[in-house]
Specification:
Elements: H1 13-21, E1 29-34, H2 35-45, H3 58-73, E2 78-82, H4 90-94, H5 112-122, E3 127-128, H6 135-148, E4 152-156, E5 170-174, E6 179-181, H7 183-190, H8 197-204, H9 219-229, H10 232-238, H11 246-253, H12 255-265, H13 287-297, H14 300-305, E7 311-312, E8 315-316, H15 324-330, E9 341-342, H16 346-359, E10 361-368, E11 378-386, E12 389-394, H17 411-422, E13 428-431, H18 434-444, E14 452-454, H19 455-463, H20 471-478, H21 486-490, H22 504-531, H23 535-555, E15 557-559, H24 561-586, H25 595-605, H26 623-631, H27 635-660, E16 667-668, E17 671-673, E18 683-685, H28 697-704, E19 706-707, E20 712-719, H29 722-730, H30 734-742, H31 746-755, H32 764-778, H33 783-790, H34 794-807, H35 809-825, E21 827-829, E22 835-837, H36 846-879, E23 887-893, E24 896-902, H37 906-918, E25 929-934, H38 937-940
Parallel strand pairs: 1-2, 1-4, 2-3, 4-5, 9-12, 10-13, 13-14
Antiparallel strand pairs: 5-6, 7-8, 10-11, 11-12, 15-16, 15-19, 17-18, 20-24, 20-25, 21-22, 23-24
Helix pairs in contact: 2-3, 3-5, 8-9, 8-12, 16-17, 18-23, 19-22, 19-23, 20-22, 23-36, 24-27, 26-27, 29-36, 30-31, 31-32, 31-34, 33-34, 34-35, 35-36, 36-37
Length: 941
């Protein structure tokens, strides 16, 4: 199975549009994409991304990749994307509280809704929506219509509410995991057949959608009742005769609520179809239109994958500066990719092990059954010792009647044979995304793999932001070779098989090629480290972090699930209390989570100023609109903002973290992405622990649920104002450097310098204004932005900024110099030598260019801070095990490190960590680290 950094997709544009033209057949196979459901899943599954114009696009990127895969693999004869037309549907007439408490979409997601519709149009795929009905109802009605005609329907969604539709001719496909969902999967989830799912849902209810259900009956109890009595009415009829219990009484008392719930969860299958099925036939995308959209989004990797890149300067757009001839010559020249050997005897394995010892290096790759390395089972492994010379060792292939998987070696015997080689310091082991493979091997019982090179990080150290770092993209850029796709090996849609069921011969072609490509990439990319002056960055920072981060992921951090549940209940209760006050201010009850209802109250009924209608005709009520009204003294918008913040904390953290906790260890294990950002910063996902809010009391409570084991405490160590210190360093600002050396309050010192007032007796308002300028300058704040932040006029804000630059002209010089460097070279450099590429810096479009210029100014500061904390982590990773302290590093969150240590050693650890972090880099200003200790993260921070 491919790892998270090896997206196995893509063929040239003509290669996927030809099958689309041939996909029509006499029996319809309708593929319906649950567009609304996918948007939210993609948003939370993918790391933050922005278009060249600075608009968030991670959900758009996920949606685009999913659509491209569907078009390329032509799994159906007909295709449509189905969207929700609005929040109000016929279910609100049945039960006004239905979905009433749902918070507004996250701020970074809202601008992506129209872009996803643009993406659908760009791919020339029909869109379906209908006011008054949810997307699920449209999907159900189309599935019913196709099923009646004798056709098949595949629903691209993993939404549990759609599982009631599963039948012999209707199935679901999880768009994130690419996992088919049929009758067996539905029964495993609900404990009943698909046609009885609605009865289970009616009994258990759904707090997410405000479906009441029957109190006290959960999934297991509901399934038992359905298995014993049948449909809901039969259960309610039998309730009086059941054994006296709380469950029996609850069924009697809440029978009507259960009936209402059944109506709410039952999908409408007979609504008028907005477009006939025949009108949804596969269509070829218009290449220029599609390319324009992808360029506007900045999805250059998709452009290349689809063969839409125009030739420029004799090479495909986005290609490496090396010519293809030079690249392939250094990476095996005309050596073919295969045929490869399948290793089925210990003698053959020992021969390959001997060859690796002779050459002194070995490219290595694992095949598994999961993208979660901690949970993955090893299916096979591949190795390469020279270009074109690679092999695959199948371990757990199941085989089929047509392709029996006989002759596989015993797993432990293979691991025992490889263990000495993988631990041999004289043989270099080469991986692509080594951290994933090392975690897989550790899970399989091989705990020592050394030394290690990682082609992903070798590339990232010299080209952060220039292009993606996945193996397929690197292969196309540097080798001119398009590797075998994972989809072509395992199949797609309902026909996809687990990798363990791929015939061994085909698995060998795919897996051994991975090792071959990795080796060739290493031969090309490793010498380029010196050319791009990135040797020290890779060798002293990126490479040592592989094992350190793997250990942190293994350790995880403990959660107090009970506290999270209490928090969730408290947030829900407070939201209810807040709603009473909100309704009183509005003069009537309404759903605070409904933008439409809120807009009508604010601008139609209360006639507040500043209202603007969206393209759809509704009043705009996003956070910026509400904040302006709140700043103007209007109480209702301020209360709505507070309600929304609480709703977001409840759903995104208090509720979600419990679901992501390891049931055995009660710890949550994030995954650190090492090669995603332009600046060198690490990112975190599954779950994302780097976006937990801490500036509000409620947000701080979330960190209280991160706790230490009994007898241990947490220690937090945080760099103080590191980006401002780096600004003083790179811009060479004498007064700021002096203030840092003297340990002065940097914001008070700035206020004194800029506003020409004494430090003594500095009032808090003046200091706050200086603080806003200090931090705003780092991110290229405008006069308008500063005015809004401080509640002053734009003219006054402009005077503040002008005064700041007049007092510190070196900062303006730094900003101008950095922009010119970026325009000339295409990248900027951090103080420790990392190149951060800046796409769009020479754009003709002013908005895109302005965004790129702000990126260029900030990248050396943010990237410099990332480099320094990485250096600190490497120091601590080496020295902490030798310190005699019973402690381990758990998390890295921007400028902060979190540790778990035996309680009686907390003070010693804090002093040790502070010293190591403050010595991580030598600057003309001191690095200062603040530490804290507590039983939970909030206390420690």
């Amino acid at each position: 199975m491919p790892d998270p950094q090896k997206p196995r997709q893509g063929d040239a544009f003509h290669a996927f549009i030809i099958p689309i033209g041939l996909c029509m057949s006499t029996t319809p196979h309708l593929v319906l994409v649950d567009g609304s459901g996918f948007i939210f899943r993609a948003f939370h599954a993918l790391p933050p991304m922005s278009s060249p114009e600075g608009v968030p696009v991670n959900a758009v990127f996920g949606f685009t990749n999913m659509l491209q895969r569907l078009l390329r693999d032509h799994v159906g004869t007909h295709l449509a994307v189905v969207f929700d037309a609005g929040r109000q549907t016929f279910r609100n007439e049945i039960y006004p509280q239905y979905k009433a408490h749902r918070p507004e979409a996250p701020e970074d997601l809202r601008p992506q809704f129209p872009l996803i519709r643009d993406a659908t149009r760009a791919f020339n795929v029909p869109m379906i929506e209908l006011p008054g009905y949810e997307a699920d109802d449209l999907i159900a009605s189309y599935a019913e219509a196709v099923e009646r005609s004798g056709g098949r329907c595949t629903i691209v969604s993993s939404d549990k509410d759609l599982m009631q539709l599963v039948s012999e001719s209707v199935s679901l496909l999880d768009p994130i995991r690419q996992k088919p969902i049929g009758r067996a999967e539905v029964e495993a989830k609900f404990g009943v057949a698909p046609d009885r799912v609605i009865d289970v849902q009616a009994l258990m209810g759904d707090p997410t959608d405000n479906v009441p259900g029957v109190p006290g009956i959960g999934p297991k109890g509901a399934a038992q009742l359905v298995q014993e009595f049948g449909e809901l009415e039969a259960i309610l009829a039998a309730a009086p005769e059941m054994k006296k219990s709380k469950r029996q009484q609850s069924l009697i008392d809440h029978a009507e609520a259960a009936r209402i719930s059944l109506r709410l969860v039952t999908l409408a299958r007979d609504i008028p179809l907005p477009e006939p099925v025949d009108a949804l036939g596969c269509r070829e995308p218009d290449a220029p239109v599609l390319r324009d959209f992808l360029e506007r989004m900045g999805f250059h990797s998709v452009i290349q994958r689809m063969g839409l890149g125009a030739l420029a300067a004799g090479r495909p757009v986005g290609a490496s500066r090396n010519s293809r001839d030079e690249t392939t010559e250094t990476a095996g020249g005309d050596k073919p990719y295969g045929p490869y050997e399948t290793i089925l005897s210990m003698e053959a394995l020992e021969t390959w092990i001997g060859r690796a010892r002779d050459t002194g290096y070995l490219a290595f790759d694992t095949e598994t059954d999961s993208l979660n390395a901690r949970q993955a089972t090893l299916i096979g492994l591949s190795l390469a010792v020279a270009p074109g010379e690679a092999a695959y060792v199948p371990l757990r292939h199941e085989g089929t009647l047509e392709h029996p998987a006989s002759g596989q070696l015993e797993v432990e015997g293979v691991l025992d044979a490889l263990r000495p080689l993988l631990a041999d310091d004289s043989v270099l082991k080469i991986f692509q995304n080594a951290k994933y493979d090392l975690l897989v091997l550790d899970h399989a019982g091989i705990t020592t793999v050394t030394p290690v090179d990682d082609t992903m990080l070798i590339s990232y150290a010299q080209s952060a932001g220039e292009h993606g770092q996945g193996m397929d993209e690197l292969s196309r850029l540097h080798l001119g070779h398009d590797p075998i796709s994972y989809d072509s090996v395992t199949g797609t849609g309902r026909n996809r098989v687990p990798f363990a069921q791929v015939p061994v011969a085909r698995a060998t072609e795919y897996a051994a090629e991975d090792a071959d490509v990795t080796l060739r990439l290493w031969q090309v990319l490793k010498p380029q480290l010196r050319e791009r002056q990135a040797v020290a960055l890779y060798e002293t920072m990126e490479r040592p972090l592989i094992g350190i981060l793997a250990a942190m992921e293994q350790a995880g951090v403990k959660l107090d699930a009970a506290e999270l549940r209490r928090m969730s209940a408290d947030f829900g209760s407070r939201m209810g209390e807040m709603e009473i006050g909100i309704h009183a201010l509005a003069g009537r009850s309404f759903n605070p989570g409904s933008p439409k209802q809120l807009g009508e109250i604010l601008f139609d009924e209360m006639s507040l100023p500043g209202g603007k209608r969206t393209k759809a005709g509704a009043w705009g009520t996003d956070s910026s609109v509400l904040q302006e009204l709140a700043d103007a003294g209007h109480e209702l918008p301020a209360r709505i903002l507070a309600w929304r913040q609480l709703a977001k904390l409840k759903s995104t953290y208090a509720d979600a973290l419990v679901q992501q906790m390891d049931a055995r260890s009660h710890r949550v294990h994030t995954s650190f992405q090492m090669a995603i950002t332009t600046t060198g910063r690490l990112s975190s996902n599954d779950p994302n622990l780097q976006n937990i809010p801490i500036r509000t009391e409620e947000g701080g409570r979330i960190r209280r649920a991160f706790i230490a084991e009994d007898g241990y405490v947490l220690v937090s160590a945080d760099y103080s104002q590191i980006e401002l210190r780096l600004l003083a360093e790179v811009a060479d600002i004498g007064p700021l450097k002096e203030a840092f050396r003297l340990g002065q309050d940097i914001h008070a010192r700035t206020a004194s310098e800029v506003f020409n007032i004494p430090l003594e007796g500095m009032d808090s308002l003046t200091r706050r204004r200086a603080k806003a300028i200090n931090f705003g300058i780092i991110y290229g704040i405008s006069a308008f932005g500063l005015a809004r932040q401080l509640g002053i006029s734009a003219g006054e804000a402009r005077r503040y900024i002008d005064a700041y630059f007049a007092r510190y002209p070196g900062i303006r010089d730094y900003m101008d110099r950095t922009k010119e460097d970026a325009k000339r070279d295409g990248y900027v450099t951090t103080p420790l030598g990392r190149r951060c590429y800046v796409p769009g810096i020479n754009e003709k479009n002013g908005a895109r260019r302005g965004y790129a210029e702000r990126q260029a100014i900030n990248a050396p500061l943010q990237g410099g801070a990332a480099d320094i904390i990485k250096r600190a982590m490497v120091r601590l990773g080496r020295r902490l095990p030798q310190s005699g302290l019973d402690a381990r590093m758990l998390l890295q969150v921007h400028d902060e490190l979190l540790f778990e240590v035996r309680a009686d050693q907390a003070a010693d650890l804090a002093a040790f960590v502070r010293a190591e972090m403050e010595q991580a880099a030598s600057l003309s200003v001191p690095l200062v680290v603040e530490t804290g200790t507590g039983s939970n993260w909030a206390e420690a921070h």
